[in-house]
Amino acid sequence: MRILIVDDKEENLYLLETLLKGNGYEVVTARDGVEALDKLKEESLDMIISDILMPKMDGFQLCRECKRDDSLKKIPFIFYTATYADAKDEQFALSLGAARFIVKPIEIDVLVQTIRDVIREHKEGLLVTPKEPIKEEKIYLTEYNKRLIQKLEKKMLDLEKSEKRIKYLYSVLGAIRGVNQLIVREKNRGILIQKTCDVLIRARGYNTAWLGLLKDEKTFAMVVGSPLGADVSRFCEQVLRGDHPPCIKKALTKKDLFMVMDRSRDCGDCSLKKLHLGRNSLLMRITHKSKLFGFLVLSLEPDVYIDQEEKGLLEEVTGDIAFGLHNIELGENLDKRTYDLKERVKELNCLWEISNLVEKPDISLEVIIKGIVNLLPSAWQYPQITCARIILEAKEYKTKNFKETTWKQSSDIMVHQKPVGTVVVYYLEERPQRDEGPFLKEERNLINIIAERLGEIIEKKQGEVELQQSYQKLQKTMEDTIYTIGKIAETRDPYTAGHQKNVSQIATFIAQEMKLPQDKIEGIRIASLVHDIGKISIPSELLNKPTKLTEIEYSLIKDHSQVGYDVLKSIEFPWPIAEIVFQHHERLNGSGYPNKLKGDEIVLEAKIIGVADVVEAMSSHRPYRPALGIDAALEEISKNKGTLYDPEVVDMCFKLFKEKRFKF
Questions:
Q1: What percent of the chain is modeled with pLDDT above 90?
Q2: Domain 2-135 classified CATH 3.40.50.2300?
Q3: For the chain, how far is it from start to end, CA to CA, in angstroms?
Q4: Tell me, what DSSP letter sits at residue 437?
Q5: 186-306: which CATH number, 3.30.450.40, 3.30.565.10, 3.30.70.260, 3.20.20.70?
C-alpha cells in the first residue's frame, strides 16, 4: 500500500511519514497540490492524505482536481488538518468527494485505524461519496472562496494576536533589561529607584509608578515617582512626611508579596486615585534575603491585567531592584571600610613619623615639638583645612596656616600627672557633624595619644615603651579594619569563610621558615588576610555555584585579582599590599593570571601566598567538590614544583606540614 502525503510543513511531513512507515506503509511526499498531481501522474498510488492550506494549490483544489480526473478519482482522499477546521470545512471537503475529514490533534491509534477503515471500505466498495459532487465551476468557486476567506480571516486574527503577544514579550524584556542595566550602572539609591520607575512607565505603559525606601518599620527615607509631575511630586512628599495612603497602611501590617487593589474600593482618598482611568493598582514588597527595603506601587492601564506572566515579570523586577539595593549597601560598606582604613593608615603613619623623629640621635625637645606640630594636619581627615598648635610651658609652636576657629579639639600634655601644656587641632572651615562633632572619634583618640606621647617624651624614661604601645593600638585598629574588609568578601562565599585567615597562617609560617626579614613577613601576613577582597565584585550565586564554571564565569572569577588591586592601591601601606594581591594567582611558567608573569617577574610575597592559597583551598570544602585533603594539596604543589610554584617555597611548605605537623 503506497500513500501520498501532502503538506507544506516539513515537520508535519516527517511525523506522518514516520508514523505510516512504522505501520508498514510505503510513503511518497509532496509539499503542495501541484507537486502532488505530478506525483500522482508519475507513480501508482493507493491513497492521498492532504493538508488544506498550502502554497500554489491547496488541499481543496487538489481534491477537486483528483475527483475530476477519471484516472485518479477512485483513489481514497483524506483531509488531515489542524488549520481553522470547522463543521462547514468538513461538509465542503466531503462534498468534493473526500473519504474522511480528520482534525488534528488525534490519537495515533485512532488515526491509524481510520486509515485502515478507509482502505477496507475502498476495497469492499463501501466508500460513500456524494451522488452529485460539485461540478458547476461557479458553485464550486463560491463555496471554495467562502471557505478560503474564512480561513484567511482566522489566520489574520491569529497573526494579530501573535503580534500583540510579541509586543507584550518585548515590553517585558525591555523592562527587565532596563532594570538590570540600571543595577549594573547606578550606585546611587535615589537615581536607581527614580530611573527604575521611569523604565517601568516606558517599557510597560503603566499609568504611574512610585517607589519608597523605608528608614524604619513605619517611615520612609526616600520616595520617588514617575511620570514626573506636580501630582506625583506632591504625593511623594506626602508619603515622605508620614501621611500614608491606604495601600501603605495595609502593606505595613501585612506580609503579602503582591497586593492587587481595586481603586474604587481600596484606595480611599489617595491623591493619585483620580489621575487615571485604570481600575487596579498593584503594591509589591521589595525584599532580599528577608530584608524589606521598601515598596513599589503601580497604577495599571484599563487593559492591563495581573495574570501569572505579569506577576512573574514584576517578581523578577522587584527581586532585581532589591538585589541592586543590597549591592549598593555592600558597596557603601566596603567604601566606608576602605575610607576608615585609609584614615587609620594616615594616623599610623603620623605616629610612625613621630617615632622616627624621636629616634633621631641628638635631637632636641624643641625640634621634636616643632616636627610634631607640622605632622598633625596630615593625620586628620581634612588635612588641607587643618591647623595645629602645641603650647608647652607658656611657649607656642604653630603650623604656618594657624588660625583660631570655633571648630577645635584639644588634649592636655601631662607630665607626672600634672598638666604642662596643650595640643590643639583646628578646622579652618565648618565640616559635617560626625561622632558628636566635626572630628572622628579616632581623631579624638589620636590627639590624646599624641598628647600622652609628648608627656612621655618629656618624661624620657617611659617614652620609647609608651610610644610602642600607642603604635600597637593603632596597628591593631588597622588590622581590625583589614580583618573586617576580608570578612566582607567571605560573606559573599560562605564555603570559604576563614580561608584568608588560614592562608595568612600558612604563608606567615613559610616566610618564617625561609628566614625572611620581620618587616617582609608582616607584609605577607597583612596581604594574605585581604588577598581575596576582589571577590566582593563577584555575584554570590557564581561563588556558590555547585557545578563546573563556564569560560565566561571563570573569566569573571579571575577578575578578582584586578578588583582587589583597585581597592587597595590607593591605601598607603608600609608594604606593597596591592601588588602582592594583584600577583597571587601568577605562576612561574606564565600560565597564571591576570598578566601571565613568569619567574622573577613575580614578587616573592605573591609566590608564597600563591602556594598557601592552593594548599588551603584544596584541603577545604567547596560548593562544587568535597575537601581533597592536605595530602592531595601537597602532591599538587610537589608535582608542579619549579613549573608553577617556587621550589624553595614548596620545600618550606612540605617542612611545615610533614616535619612540624602544622595544622590550621
A1: 35
A2: yes
A3: 80
A4: B
A5: 3.30.450.40
